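Board work, copied verbatim: Glyoxylase I family protein
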Amino acid sequence: MNITKIHHIAIICSNYEVSKAFYTETLELPILNEVFREERNSYKLDLLVNDVYQIELFSFPNPPKRPTHPEAAGLRHLAFEVPNVEDAVNELREKGIMIEPIRIDPITDKKFTFFQDPDGLPIELYEA
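↓ predict structure ↓
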């Protein structure tokens, strides 16, 4: 096996239009492809991250809720690297996003913080 990179991260949302607006307008991720899958009554939205990675945003009727936050088994959080955490925090606050206080990673000495998508998925901003 020769794994070379992560191809995509898949997220199931509870309200497609709200999550689509969050990821495309608030986080400003460009749309690669959008399709409605009639047989599943589900949208699939492919988003680009830095023209390298993809996020697949899915909608399904009545998806189960996340059991706990954030220590449930499975994906803990999604992390985005940014050149400057303070600048990113200020931009998100201007858009009405609630953000945790900026912290310092005791191992790398890098700045980071967390906020949530519309379904409560933890998203981390980590300074490059």
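The helical segments are 16-26, 85-94.
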